[in-house]
């Protein structure tokens, strides 16, 4: 797959005036209190294109009526009925969820503050299709604060938090989404966002490419007014590159998925936190002294290994790439072949993005009680299908936990049937989603305000300077004090004092 880096000279990129300049930020960092309120909630995760993440909590009353939201007449307190949610009366619960999320999304809140005077999205008509959760609600309301009009649908039929959708509708957002939509509902909701009298979108924010696909299929003329597409997921980005290759992409698109801040946080730091959470919630296990083998020492593998090592586990790594293998050695892990340790380990974790990494032969040789799980994108890494044979007994012992029992009584503990452990069984921290959401907001602002000709009908990465800006907006949370280059130092390094600080090829 060919990836197009932004062709523009990033050093020439002018940060809009309303953005905080780095020097200002330094001052702000010192002022801002660091304390962040937290609340623990039991949440479950759903996903659409299986590669973007959001957390979901629900206060939804189980006695909720079964009438389809499409058949209900609902109005918000201002009399508007331009929305379709499960139950508008749940808005107050949703508002609380949004307020909790706001506390861990400092960059979006900073953007709102900055935008009080200026509205960089004034006149923007954004149609969005993402998970509808508290975190995306913070994004949607931030876009509104920046001047945009938004219409929104869900990118996944299960992941909508009904309360949050209600809170958005109550706040005047035209949101069409509820948990448990049918396939038909799903497309109906997208259509209601797009097909509106007297309103045409001029920006698209997509997660998975379904909205973009729908507009291409049903309303291709709309692209005459659309200034750009911002896409978050691997799948959606892949579709955009295909369109671009076929010469069919008719507007510029921003690939948010591959921005540095998103990759690092989603893959490395998020997995470093959520691997332990996922294992703990499903098995109540203790990590100290356990022998673990982690397959793949990329970003995800590095995060998993670091977390387990810190908990006192004995960690082995398997790799096919000598560079990553050497990194594992330098980080103090034993590099092995899976066969060499499969009989002795207590936990097997796959993070390769590959297929059949753990085969039936490996599974046959594992010791009693071995826990097997996957942190990679798809459920192909562990050959789970090979376990569906008559001689093996499956016992569902908890939600997302199966015991697979061999004829001699040996039990293997399989988590989430080999699907992504953290997305299936734990949460994604709001702070991680904050980084993605900020990147999306800045990508929209950049595409919307870009002068004619800066972006062609191609797929771009966010300019490096904006990636740096996303990171800098999150620094105040940690009371972090960034060093400023002196004029002399900037000259010596050949850098602009305000960045970008690294070339595009730099690997963080
Ligand atoms: N769980 C999550 O929250 C989460 C977050 C981001 C990405 N992912 C997914 O996790 C997977 C890994 O992501 P990444 O960023 O670490 O990718 P990566 O490419 O950085 O790392 C994967 C590593 O696996 C190695 N590998 C491939 N085949 C192997 C094999 N047969 N045995 C041993 N090692 C092998 C590769 O050499 C590579 O170093 C991807 O599928 C990605 O989509 C999951």
TrEMBL record:
Catalyzed reactions: S-adenosyl-L-homocysteine + H2O = L-homocysteine + adenosine
Co-factor(s): NAD(+)
Keyword terms: Hydrolase, NAD, One-carbon metabolism
Residues binding NAD(+): 298-303, 319, 422
Binding site for substrate: 133, 207, 232, 262, 266
SUPFAM superfamilies referenced in this protein's UniProt entry, alphabetically: Formate/glycerate dehydrogenase catalytic domain-like (SSF52283), NAD(P)-binding Rossmann-fold domains (SSF51735)
Compositionally skewed regions (Low complexity) per UniProt: 42-61
Enzyme Commission number: 3.13.2.1
Annotated GO CC locations: cytosol
Cofactor mode of binding and number, as noted: Binds 1 NAD(+) per subunit.
Disordered as annotated region, ranges: 25-81
InterPro entries assigned to the protein according to its UniProt record, in alphabetical order: Adenosylhomocyst_ase-like_sf, Adenosylhomocysteinase-like, Ado_hCys_hydrolase_NAD-bd, NAD(P)-bd_dom_sf, S-Ado-L-homoCys_hydrolase_CS
Gene Ontology BP term (one): S-adenosylmethionine cycle
A Pfam family: AdoHcyase
Gene Ontology molecular function: any one: adenosylhomocysteinase activity
Keyword hit for NAD: yes
Family, per entry: Belongs to the adenosylhomocysteinase family.
NCBIfam families in UniProt: ahcY (TIGR00936), PRK05476.2-3 (NF004005)
Matches recorded under PANTHER family: ADENOSYLHOMOCYSTEINASE, ADENOSYLHOMOCYSTEINASE 3
Protein name: Adenosylhomocysteinase
Native source organism of the sequence: Xenopus laevis
